[in-house]
Amino acid sequence: LDLLNNAQVRVMLGPEDSMPTNFIIQPGNKSQVPILSFSATSPSLTSIRSPYFFRGALNDSSQVGAITAIIKAFGWREAVPIYVDNQYGEAMIPSLTDALHAIDTRVPYRSVISPLATDDQIEKELYKLFTMQTRVFIVHKLPSLGSRIFEKANEIGLMNKGCVWIMTDGMTNLLRTLEPSVIDSMQGVIDVRPYENPSLFDAELNIIGLLAYDATRALAEAVEKAGITSFGFDKINVSSNATDLEAFGISQNGPKLLQALSSTRFKGLTGDYIFVDGQLQSSAFEIINVNNGARGVGFWTPEKGLTQKLKLRIGVPVKKGFSDFVNVTIDPKTQEQTSVTGYCIDVFKAVIPELPYAVAYDFVPYGQPDGSSSGSYNDLIYQVFLGEFDAVVGDITIVFNRSNYVGFTLPYTESGKRNAWVFLQPLTWDLWVTSGCFFIFIGFVVWVFEHRINDDFRGPAKHQVGTSFWFSFSTMVFSQRERVISNLARFVVIVWCFVVLILTQSYTASLTSLLTVQQLQPTITDVKMLIKRGQCSANGGIAAALDEIPYMKLLIGQHCSKYTMIEPKFKTAGFGFVFPLHSPLVHDVSKAILNVTEGDKMKEIEDAWFKKHSSCPDASTVVSSRSLGLNSFWGLFLIAGIAAILALIIFLAVFVHQHRNVLRNSESSLLSRIRIFLKIFV
After folding, report:
1. For the segment 163-197, what is each residue's pLDDT rounded down to a tens digit?
2. Which end of the chain is more exposed for a tag (fewer CB within 10 A), N or C?
3. 301, 329, 355 - which closes a domain
4. In degrees rounded to 5, what are phi and psi of residue 508?
């Protein structure tokens, strides 16, 4: 009353419970102030006719269809509702019993338990149920009382095999808040709860928090849509003896807000958010089985009944040209979609089975019945933000401005960026590994020869190791600064420098060849140059084309002798799949894309759609043929290896001969003599 009379609020969000909501509906209606509640679920509120009351929560009776569908599916002929003795518990029971009777399921008994019941009273009521033949129980209670009932039922054996417990969303919505001991007592319970769309948001909130968020968004959009500029109340003439309930003014903005809220429609965190006669419509319920945690086992929708999966609506572009990426075929007679094919579609179909859960989907063309498009690619992507589509699959480029209102997966095509690792391509991996091993080996051999007689190779152990490897690797650019004193070391270094010279010269030639092929360019190499010259081709053609990398590669694959592609100046991240912002599917699908692109499946898809058109040699084969392998240099490594090993043998023979007296000392043990020998060497 204070908010209406003194604060003169324009709209109310709340209250949380059905009882106070029941009271404030009439004052709100009289003052034309819309009231939007996100947690008042009592079916009794439906009977109160007020155009200014909006229930942004599901009516408790909306889950009756899901409960009776489960009972009908298993053919259970009797069921006993267990509910709390107050308005919350009693309001849903009439619709539940009517629905059970409609499927020929008897209700032989109704178990009513007071919210203030003691443990003894609960136990007494449960023992009464234990003596009955009925073994299907429907629990409609809040967690404070429901958790005590399940613990007692578990103690007396009423949760054993053969008993079926179905729980309404009063407890299911707050399941994660229950104590572990309560969850343990609920093993096997079937739960029903409103479906929270995972493609929209991954929030650590219960359904009440999600509904509160959606209700707040609905109010914000309604205020913007109504275009409110004034915030006054019209006072009405009332007598001085009038009570607070009679002294309300009338909001000037009420009718505009009423119309805006009534037409609100978006895909919220809880699914489709739309009011019909002031009541939020139920879209789907999820069926949960408590088994070492909550596990989803199915869904129920008013249209399809019980199903194991919910389908995503996947928007696909309708266009002309580049049909190898996406192609929507429409029957000219019926003007209905007959097939959706293409490279992007096959990639998506390959990615979905890699997800850790089942996802069903329908492709929905974004086009007109005559086969024309319904809008641009930006318009199509924006439909995900509006909630018309759950995702978009097609040749969609990942760019910054689009990422402000939708989420993109990792790209599954080549991006407009150069390969940062092209410098590794001139040599095959086995040649890189072999070269690295020989650098280390040569460094060790030089250290063996030099560390006893050369101060550059002496010092702490770390210094000796660093100097040896530095000396070896610096031979690549012939910049070694350390002197080599031993003739054996000089011999090994000379041979190794010869190998390194040939290796580096061959690497330089191969890399130059690769980069030269990549940078072969026409006379027009830049957009600015094209504009400056004002150049165009004959016969109404064009001098150059700017497009995405995948399109260019497809075109060049068909006409590789006529066109070439220059370095991209405007970099994009490639093609990706589109989902709503913050959708957990973005992360999961991205991981699945990596799994597919790293395997053979991706190459099979690319070959199926692109190789059939290509008259050019395979790029991977060309690069591989230009890469230098170990088979081209094994002779050089063999010479260097033999030279180093031969030098080591000569050094070892001379060293042993010089210190033969140590080995001949019979007074010391063999182990002691070896230790002395090694100490002399080091």
Report:
1. 999 999 888 888 878 888 888 899 889 999 888 76
2. C
3. 301
4. -60, -40
Distance in angstroms between the alpha carbons of the first and the last residue of the chain: 95
Count of other CB atoms within 10 angstroms of residue 253: 22
Task: Please count the other Cβ atoms lying within 10 Å of the Cβ belonging to residue 252.
Answer: 15
Q: What is the pTM (predicted TM-score) of this model?
A: 0.54
Of the candidates 68, 576, 546, which has an alpha carbon nearest to the alpha carbon of residue 305?
Answer: 68
In a domain? residue 455:
yes
Res 617: pLDDT: 57
164 with 88, same domain: the answer is yes
Give the total number of structural domains in the chain: 4
Contacts of 465 (CB under 8 A, 6+ apart): none
Helix crossing, 619-626 with 487-518: angle to 10°? 150
Nearest C-alpha neighbor of 258 from the set 296, 218, 293? 218
Is a pLDDT exceeding 70 seen at residue 569?
A: no
d(CA 282, CA 43): 14
pLDDT, tens digit, for every residue of 58-71? 888 999 999 999 99
Confidence of residue 459 (pLDDT cuts 50, 70, 90): confident
What is the full DSSP assignment across 71-104? HHHHT--B-EEEEESSHHHHHHHHHHHHHHHHTT
Assess whether 94 and 212 both reside in one domain: no
Nearest Cα to Cα of residue 138 among 167, 172, 107: 167
Instruction: Sort residue 10 into left (φ over 0), alpha (ψ -120 to 50) or beta.
Output: alpha
Whether residue 15 is contained in a domain is answered as yes
Please tell me the distance from the alpha carbon of residue 3 to that of residue 9, in angstroms, as a whole number: 6
Closest of 385, 416, 362 to residue 573, by C-alpha: 416
Same domain? For 85 and 30 the reply is no
Phi, psi of 83 (to 5 degrees): -140, 165
How many other CB atoms are found less than 10 A from the CB of residue 328?
24
Q: Are residues 2 and 149 in the same domain?
A: no
For residue 333, the number of C-alpha atoms closer than 13 Å in the C-beta half-sphere is 0
Query: What residue type is assigned to position 419 of the chain?
Result: N
Amino acid at 681: F
Q: State which residues form the domain around 496.
A: 429-513
Do 90 and 18 belong together in one domain? no
Q: Tokens for 501, please give them.
A: 């010279």
Record the tokens describing residue 586, joined without a space.
């973005």
Average pLDDT over residues 402-408: 90
Q: What is the mean pLDDT of residues 547-555?
A: 73
The pair phi, psi for residue 288, each rounded to 5°, is: -115, 140
Q: Does residue 259 lie within any of the structural domains? A: yes
Task: Let me know: does 139 contact 82? Beta carbons within 8 Å.
Answer: yes
Report residue 277: phi and psi, to 5°: 55, 40
Mean pLDDT for the stretch of residues 298-307: 83
Residues whose CB falls within 8 Å of the CB of residue 121, separated by 6 or more in sequence, listed in order: 113, 114
Q: Average pLDDT, whole number, for the chain? A: 83
Answer with the one of 476, 496, 513 that is the final residue of a domain. Answer: 513
Q: 297 and 175 in one domain?
A: yes
Q: How many CA atoms lie within 13 A of 626 on its CB side?
A: 22
* Per-residue pLDDT tens over the stretch 485-508: 889 989 999 998 999 889 888 888
DSSP state, residue 572: -
Could you write out the DSSP letters of every residue in 488-509? Answer: HHHHHHHHHHHHHHHHHHHHHH
